[in-house]
Amino acid sequence: MSVNVNKYRIFCYASHCFSEEDAIHSVHMETSDRGKIKTIARPIHPSSQGFIESLSMRRILEADGQLLSEVFGANIIAPPVSLTPQQKENLVLNSRQKLQNLFNQPKTRPFVIALYNESARAIVPKLPEVEYLYSPNVSSAALHDMNTFFIPTEDQKKLVRVLFDKDVISDDIYTQVLRDHEQRFHTKREQLRERLPKLIENFLSNLPTMTGYSEELRETARQRLETISYDVIDGLIAIPEDKWGEYDVQRRTIRIAEQIPDAVFVHVIGHEVLHGVSGQTVIQRTTSLPQDDDSMFIEDHTVDYYALRTGVRAGKHFRWLNEAITETLACEVDATSPMPVLYLPHKKLLQLLTRHVPFEQFVKAYFEDYDTGVQSHERIPHWKALYKAINTAYRPGFLSELDVFIKENGNEGVKKAVEFLKMENSRMDIMNLSGRSQSERS
What is the DSSP track for 144-195? Predict the structure, then answer.
């Protein structure tokens, strides 16, 4: 049997049909210069020793500790001696332009402001500080996620733009700013790493306040946290998926941006840790190469692993729902957080869905591992039950169509979906919001 393994698995998860054995147990055959290559994919438990050992190897192979100069143009901090003055000038000009591009994007603007407040003001003390704090006057609709949570005024933006003005900050001073930032990054990286163990302990102690808590869940969380690694990254170089932080499911690694404000640090850690302890589907893929006679497969083969699902997210499917559940639970674990509006529309959309389906049912699906020890149709029962309950409340196929609509429209899609579900006749086809007819969609 030959199937497009990756696409087929994702489709099957989205349509809750993991009950079909070949949807996840698959044999893929392809031809190479040496003959036929056989790939066997099968699910394994997330606590499998082989998968855990592979995580360490993946982390070793990762590039670590990139210099700031690598993103703004090679060797800005210490330019090669062979460069001419004009080449050095062009290098710094390119750096300023890249920095300005980062500043123009809401998602990366806070990182540039942090560079200004810390390093630029350290080198040029006369520069005024930019107070970059949460603005309660910003409409909740604008706060679609962490990316627009901190809103600077136009006057504050003008202050930061001196970084791009050669007449205000010379090339030599600009280079000093970058060098200062690099030193600060390594210092702060170690400081944040030292804080993490205590924060993890606090997270575990606060778990009983969370919906769906059980001693079994606490023990699973404790064991999984032992296999998770943590790192602090420079948001000017490696932009995290969730702005201030991210969870890499393939490496079980939580990365936190060095520029993260203290006001959200604890909350973001809790949010990413929840991603780390949520349910997973892990695939072991074994690839065998042919012998010279092309008739038998050699015993030597390669084995690799990848996580197909974390929480209720499978690839690009249901990310909005996964973030909504994660953030709702993070607020329960961190009840004192001053930041109640992260992923606000996502949480609102979830709240509207819970008018028909209890939140506890979402939580059960969120923490559910793919169980390889039972019959195939019983391996993700909570997800299947949730999928069926939502579609029963609205109409067949509703949840998948909602997911497609949001993927096609991004964060605006989440907001439109919220308005859609507020309507009494929300059992109609949500895809009509895109203005496409049934014939255009098929």
Answer: SSGGGSB---HHHHHHHGGGG-TTTS-HHHHHHHHHHHHHHHHHHHHHHHHH
Count of other CB atoms within 10 angstroms of residue 368: 23
- Dist CA 319 CA 316 (whole Å): 6
Residues 371, 309: Cα–Cα separation, whole Å: 13
Nearest-angstrom CA–CA distance, 434 and 271: 32
What is the signed CA dihedral for 315, 316, 317, 322, rounded to 10 degrees? 90
Rounded distance, CA 301 to CA 290, Å? 10
CA distances in angstroms from 384 to 280, 358, 362, 402, listed in the order given: 15, 15, 11, 16
- The closest of 413, 127, 142, 149 to 257, measured between CA atoms, is 149
Bridge partners of residue 255, in order along the sequence: 231, 246
**CA-derived radius of gyration, the chain:** 25
Starting from the edge strand earliest in sequence, which strands make up the sheet with 35-44, in order?
Answer: 26-32, 35-44, 280-290, 297-310, 313-314
Phi, psi of 150 (to 5 degrees): -110, 115
Whether the Cβ atoms of residue 309 and residue 23 lie closer than 8 Å to each other? no
Q: Degrees (nearest 5) of the Cα angle 317, 45, 12? A: 30
Token pair recorded at residue 319: 């990310």
- pLDDT, one tens digit for every residue, the chain (442 residues): 233 333 333 333 443 433 333 344 444 445 444 456 667 777 777 777 777 777 665 554 444 444 454 445 445 666 666 778 888 888 888 888 888 888 888 778 888 888 898 999 999 999 888 875 544 444 443 333 444 445 667 777 888 888 888 888 898 898 889 889 888 888 888 888 888 888 888 888 999 999 999 999 999 999 888 888 888 888 887 777 766 888 888 778 888 888 887 777 888 889 999 999 999 887 777 776 655 555 554 445 566 666 678 889 887 899 999 999 999 999 898 866 655 557 888 999 999 999 999 999 999 999 998 887 777 778 889 999 999 999 999 888 899 999 999 988 887 889 889 988 887 555 556 655 555 534 444 4
Residue 168, number of CB atoms within 10 A of its CB: 13
How many beta carbons lie within 10 A of that of residue 28, not counting itself?
A: 17
